Amino acid sequence: MTEYFWLIPLIPGASTFILAVFGRWLPKKYVSWQACLSVFASFLMAVASFLGLLKVSPENLPIVKSLFSWIVSGVFSTNLSFQLDPLSMIMALVVTGVGFLIHVYSVGYMARDKGYTRYFTYLNLFTFAMLILVMASNIVLMFVGWEGVGLCSYLLIGFWFEKNSAANAGKKAFIINRIGDAAFILGVFFLLVNIGSGEFKAINAAIGGGSVTQGLATLMALLLFVGAIGKSAQIPLYVWLPDAMEGPTPVSALIHAATMVTAGVYMVSRFNLLFTLSGVAAQVVAVVGALTAIYAATMALTQNDIKRVLAYSTISQIGYMFIGCGVGAYAAGMFHLYTHAFFKSLLFLAAGSVMHALSGELDMRKMGGLRKYLPLTYPTFLIGAIAIAGVPFLSGFFSKDAILTHAFVQRQYFVWALGIMGAVLTAFYMFRLIFLTFFGEERLDSHAKQHLHESPRVMTVPLVLLAFFSIVAGYVGLPVVFGEKANLFTRFLEPVIKPGHKAQLTVSMEWLLILISVAVALCGIYIAYIFYLKSPRTPHVLVSRFPKIYKLLYNKYYVDEIYNAIFVNSAIKGSEVVYDNFDLKVIDGTINGTAAATGFTGQLLSFLQSGLVKDYALVLLLGVVIFLGYLLL
Amino acid sequence: MIPLSYFFGLSIILFVLGIVAFFIKRDLITMFMAVEIMLNAANLAFITLAKAANSLHGQVIVLFVITVAAAEAAVGLAIILLVFRQKKSIKAEDMRLMNG
């Protein structure tokens, strides 16, 4: 089946086409079946390809399938071609697998929405675009997918476009992504000009062959990374992601877990040779990742909107993935991406289930004690929270520990320390969320309480499956202390990601690092327990003692306000000036002037139109006379 | 044998008469007749040349002109009739709806 791997992106693509063209005449039931089954078919295809890929020897990788010659322009030419190697395989499995569960969940979640068909069309398109992104064999096609997911995020975040806030959030996501993409496309141009081909194979060969200087590599890598900053919501372009909550909850799960934000991490891993060659760029990636990891975590501490907490936690977790990439542990970064996909989609879908149960309530201050009303949502949510907090034996622990250990091994102590601090905060805010939502006194309003109910099975079954994977997914990447061969994940990725320096740590040091990771996770949970269960007064005392810090965090460091004041308002002001002077005066002036001139000329010449037959005949006669005179004389 | 110039002379006289009549007469029917006279002046010139050059072309054109003139007369007279019903007048000056 492996040779048919190029069908993986094309199946959801075909489904999108059918839904987009014929969707309005199709019954709802058919739409749900087609949308889900197309992603499932592509998942099965991905699994089959995976099994085949295991048997392919590394020197035959990547498998490239060229469909046709796409752009031919002078010496430059690009094929529409897909490639399969361990990196794109993992991404394809995550995108289709998690994407499928989100599709199924959406059937229940969106059941009564009037834009049902439109929703599934976009959802399929999103999957399609992301699969194009991860399976493209050249950077030009990758860019198509890159822009495709940007477009889909806009469509889905602004899905309820009648709501002003949703429409604005969609625009915000789109525009901020444009900033990153502008740098990204510059990076693409530099690559194309300097290497002469967009094929990843050729790029890697050129870098490996030493034909790219370090300075050039730094330039290209940094430009590409700016694109990743936009797409993966890192400092300073992260502001669109928290607002993306305006979309339907399954969309948030899709954006945060399987598609879109992981694209940046995938791209950096794809160009790992470039970033490693540059060195500086890799360091920038690590520092940006570490700063984002802790910065976003602090903002998550004070939010009361259940989805916003999760949004900031996504930004923070993506920061960890970039730490992994930045310190040269691309495999660890990808590993965290893969485990994160499960527990983050689980958390979002469970949060959606809570919202569903509470008739759309998002504010954690109006929840509490939900544990006995939501017998399936509660344990799955808890598993997701434990996994993301980094408690041992669940998937998040293995991946986060791998990243932090590598940061330590590479002597990036600053990055490592930020990561550890971020881990404490992660455990704290996740359990704050759990305690506020599911424990303690019930603070529901009476209306919500009447309708309190567990979600239908079509929504809970994906939750259970994702919870299962959140537990077991980590066991494919055991830490080095269990032996060099224990990390199946890294070994699988080896054909794409060359292992860097071998870990030079003693076994006891390894265990110490693991112990530290465990300790910080438990410590964070314990603090949350004290704050929100044992003595619920503590947060209030802290708030009244440090009101400035609280306000700063609660208002998200006023970044939105600063951006508004500096960029948005100046853009609006500038546009107004242009509108007043150029639009109204030059453009409208030209058009109105043309009309006025025409009217004036017409008025002048209207005396010729006397309406009298004889006048016209006279003109005719004169014409004939002049014509004859000209001919004869 | 009558010289050709006589025929052309007659043709020119008729044509000029038609033009003059068209411009000095005011009612539509007379103006219409003036146009017919001009057409027939042209016909005379054509037939003369056809006879002189011993060619059928001129005669064919004359036949066309007569046909077109007949059709035109039918349509033109009908229009004049309708105009009269509307305006109770067939003076050319009374019809200047297209005055700009």
| H and E order of chain B | HHH
Largest sheet composition of chain B: none
Please indicate the count of domains of chain B: 1
Residues in helix, % of chain A? over 70%
Regarding CATH, which class of chain B? Mainly Alpha
Strand content of chain B: under 5%
- CATH-defined architecture of chain B: Orthogonal Bundle
Low-confidence stretches of chain A: none
Assembly classification: heterodimer
Taking pLDDT < 50 over at least 5 consecutive residues as the criterion, the unreliable ranges of chain B are none
Describe this structure in words.
The complex is a heterodimer of chains A (633) and B (100). Chain A has 633 residues and is mainly α. In chain A, 72% of the residues lie in helices and 3% in strands. Chain A has 26 helices and 2 strands. Chain A has helices spanning 7-22, 28-55, 86-109, 116-135, 139-157, 164-195, 200-208, 214-231, 240-243, 249-258, 262-270, 272-278, 280-300, 306-326, 330-357, 377-389, 395-409, 413-438, 446-450, 457-472, 488-493, 507-534, 538-545, 547-554, 559-605, 613-632; strands spanning 63-73, 76-84. Chain A has a two-stranded antiparallel ribbon. Chain A is globular. Chain B is mostly helical. Chain B has one domain (4-89): Orthogonal Bundle (Helix Hairpins), CATH 1.10.287. Chain B is 78% helix and 0% strand. Chain B has 3 helices and no strands. Chain B has helices at 4-24, 28-53, 57-87. Chain B is elongated. The model of chain B has no long low-confidence stretch (mean pLDDT 90). The chains are: A mainly alpha (633), B mainly alpha (100). At the A-B interface, helix 26 of A face helix 1 of B.
Summary, kept brief:
Chain A is mainly α.
Secondary structure topology:
The complex is a heterodimer of chains A (633) and B (100).
Chain A: H1 7-22, H2 28-55, E1 63-73, E2 76-84, H3 86-109, H4 116-135, H5 139-157, H6 164-195, H7 200-208, H8 214-231, H9 240-243, H10 249-258, H11 262-270, H12 272-278, H13 280-300, H14 306-326, H15 330-357, H16 377-389, H17 395-409, H18 413-438, H19 446-450, H20 457-472, H21 488-493, H22 507-534, H23 538-545, H24 547-554, H25 559-605, H26 613-632
Helix pairs in contact in A: 1-2, 1-4, 2-3, 2-4, 3-4, 3-10, 3-15, 3-20, 4-5, 5-6, 6-8, 8-11, 8-12, 8-13, 10-15, 11-14, 11-15, 13-14, 13-18, 14-15, 14-17, 14-18, 15-16, 15-17, 15-20, 16-18, 16-20, 17-18, 17-22, 18-22, 23-24
Chain B: H1 4-24, H2 28-53, H3 57-87
